[in-house]
Design a protein that fits this description.
Chain lengths: ~550, ~300
Amino acid sequence: MYAWLQATLILAVVVALHVPLGDYMAKALDGGPHGRTERVLYKVCGVDPDREQDWRHYLFALLAFSLMSIAALFALFTLQGKLPWSTGHEGMPWRLALHTAVSFTTNTSWQNYAGESTTGHLAVMAGLGVQAFASAAVGICAALALIRGLVRRDTAQLGNFWVDLNRTIFRVILPLSIVSGIILIALGVPQNLGGAHTVTTVAGGQQTLLGGPVGSWEPLKLMSGDGGGVFNANSAHPFENPSAYTNAIEIVLMLLIPTAFIRTYGRMIGSLRQSWTLLAVVGILFGLLLAAGSLAQNVHSGTVTAAVGGQYEGTETRVGIPGSTLFGVAATGSADGAANSAYDSFSSFGGGVLLSAMMLGEIAPGGTGSGLYGLIIAVMIAVFIGGLMVGRTPEYLRKRIGFPEMRYVVLYALVAPTAILGCSALAVALGQGQSSMGNPGPHGLTELVYAYTSNVNSNGSAMAGFNGATDFHNLLMSAAMLIGRYVPMVFLLALAGRLARQQPGVVTVGTLQARGVNFIALATGAALILALLNFLPALSLGPLAEGLL
Amino acid sequence: MTFLSRMPAWIGHHVAAIRVVIVLTLLVGLAYPLGMTAIAQIPGLDRSAQGSALIGAGGKQAGSELIGQSFLDKKGNPIPYYFQPRPSNAGTGYDASASAAGNLGPESTVDVLPVKGEPDSGKQSLLTQVCARSKAVGDLEHVDGSRPYCTADGVGAVLGVFRDGGTTGRATRVVSVNQACPAQPFVATYESVTVTCATPGEDYGTAVVTPVRGDAPAHPEVPADAVTASASGLDPQISPAYAELQAPRVARERGMDEDSLRKLIDRYTSGRGLGVLGAPAVNVVQLNAALDRTHPVKGA
C-alpha cells in the first residue's frame, strides 16, 4: 500500500510541476529577445545569435560542439594528475579517458571506473559537470529543431544551435540546479572541496571519509539525464542520497525536464491537447513498466529471493524495495541511468523490466529533449500505420508523412536495435562478452545486453557485475554510444529540414487526428510492438530464461 | 565576427565550439560549483555540507551520521555490546572510500569451492552468503537461523543432478555442490540416487542445478536485511525488526534494562517520510555512539 501511495505522490508532484515549468521553457527557449549578458556571451564565443541555420548547419554546429567537448574531456581526464583539485588521483589511461569523455558528452554516463578512486574534484566539476549541462542541452536543441520543422512552413531555417544551447543551459538547467542543489544540501548531501580524512570510528577502527562537490553535482546528474555518480554506488551512496526525502526528490528531478518538455512542445505547436495526448502515452508506458517492475520485485521468483524472503539484496534500508523499484524504472525510463540500488541483484523479471524500459527507445519519458523526439518518431510511425489503415495520406500536425519522411523515421528507428544487438553479438562472438560477465548463465547474458542497451540508448545505468573496464569494451562501448546518440540525430535533423520546407496540408473529415483514446492506444501499441519485435528474442535468452528456468 | 564569417562554415563551427566549451567550463564548470560551495557555508547548510559529522564519546569526530561503520573486533567477530549493521561489500567492509554492491543475481546459487591450500581460490554464491550470515546471526542472537534453500551448516542447499539425457531423464549421479568433502550432504538420497559431497576443483557444469527448499519456515527469525548487503555497502541503517532482535543481547552486555534501550532505539528510528516515503530504519551508527555516551562499557 505504501508503495502505491509513494509512487502516486511522487508522480503527482511531477505532473503538477510539469505545467509551469513546461510553459516557462516554451517562453524561455523559443523566440523572444536576447538578454544583455547573453549578447556578451555570444560576442565572446564569436557567434551571431540572429542568424538562423538550415538543418545541415544546425547539425554541423551540434556535431562540432560535441567533438570539441569530447576532446576537452579527454584532455582533462588524461592530464588530471597535473591539474589542481585532483585530490591525488592520476590521469586516466587513454582508452578509459576516451570512453568516459564520449560517455559524458553523449549524455550516457556509463562509468567503467569507480568515482571515488578515479575522479578528483576538478574532473567532477569542470569535466562531468560541464557536459551534464551541455549534453542535456544538446538533446533539447535537436528536439527544438524538430519542433520548428513541424511548426514552420516553406522555410529551410530551423533556429540557431548556439542560441538554443545557451538558453537551455542558462535559462533552464542552471536555475533549477541551484534551487534543487540547495534543497539537497539542506537535506544532507555534502558540498565541500575537502579531501579524504581518516577518523577513528565508534568501535575504535579506522574509516576514511571522502568529501567533494556532491551537492552541486547531484541535481545536474538527475535533471540532465546524465546519471553518473561521484561515487561508485551512485544514488545508493548515503552522501548522494541521504534519506527517503532526497530519494523522492531525486526521482522527481529525473522525470521533471523530460515531462515538462512535452508541455513545452504543446505550447510551441499551439496545441496543448497534443501535449496531453503525448503525456497520456508516456503515462501509460511508464505505468505499465512500474506495475510490471513492482509485481516482479514482489513475487519472489528467484532462489536467493525466496531464501532471503524478499528482494533485499542490493537495496538501501532507508529507501526500501518500492523506493528502489520506482527509482529504477524512473532511471531507465527517463534515460537518466542513476541507481539507488544494485540493478544486477534485482529479481530476474525486475531486471528485465529495467532493460525493457530502455529498449522502448527511452521515450517514457526519455531523456532531456531526446525523450520527446523519440516519442514524436513513435507517433509518426503510429500516424503512418493509422493512415494506411484508413486509406489516407498520413499527416501529422498538417504535415504530410510520405515516403521521404518515413524513410528518415524508419532509419532513425533502426539505429538503436541494430547497434544494441550487433554490439552484443560481436562481444559474444569474440568471447569478450563472456569473460566480462559477473554472473553465470542467462543472468550473464542479461548483463551484457543491458550494458549495450544502456550505452546505445544514452542511459548509463548498469548491471554493475559486468566488467566494462577492458580495452575491448571501452572501445566498443565508445563506438556504441557515438552511433546511438548522433546517427539518429542526423536522420532527425534531415527529417526536420524536410518538414520545414513543406506547406501545411488541409485538414479534412478523413484526416486521422493525432488525439483521442483511439490514437493514444494506437501510439502506445506501436511503441510497444516495435520494441517487442526488436528485442523479444534477446529478452527470452536473458531475463525470461533466468526467471522461468 | 567578420573574421569568422569569412571562414568556411565547418571551420567556423569548430572555432565557435572551442570558445563555447571554454566559456561553459568557466561559468558552469567552475563558477557554479564554487558558488554552491560558498552558499553551503551559511549556517543551517554548513553541517550537512561538511558531511554530517558524528561526534564520538571523546568529543572528536568519529565518522559521519550518514555513513555506516563496522562493529567487528580485530578478529572479525561482532562486538557483542554494539548493534551490528548489515553485511557490506564496500572494500573489506564499510570502507567509505570504496562504496560497492555485491552485484550477484537472484540465481547465484553455486559456489566455487576453494581448493586445498588456497583458501582464497573459491567464490561464494549469493545464496551461500545469505545462508552463512543467517546461521551466524542466529547463533549470535540465540534464535533459529534456518532459511529456505539453506543447509544446516549454512551453505546453499543446491544439488547438481547428472541425468542420462543431459537435462532430462533418469538421475545417474547427484552431488551437493556447495558442500565440500568430507561434509555430510544435507540429504542422503535424491530420486533414489545417493547424494555425495563435492570435490573442490571438479567441474559440475553439465549437472542440472537443483536448489532444494527444505523445511525451514517461510518467515525466518533472522530478518532479511541482516543477511543481505546494501547497494552502497555503507548503509548506516537496519530494519526495526533487526534492531529488535539484537536489543536483548546489547541490553545484557551493557547491563541496562531493555525498556530504556528501546526508547533509545526509537530516538534513532526514522519512520516513513510524510508517512509514505521510503521505509522505517534504525541508524546503527548514531545508536551505538549514543549507547557509548549513556551506557559506556567498562574496560572497552
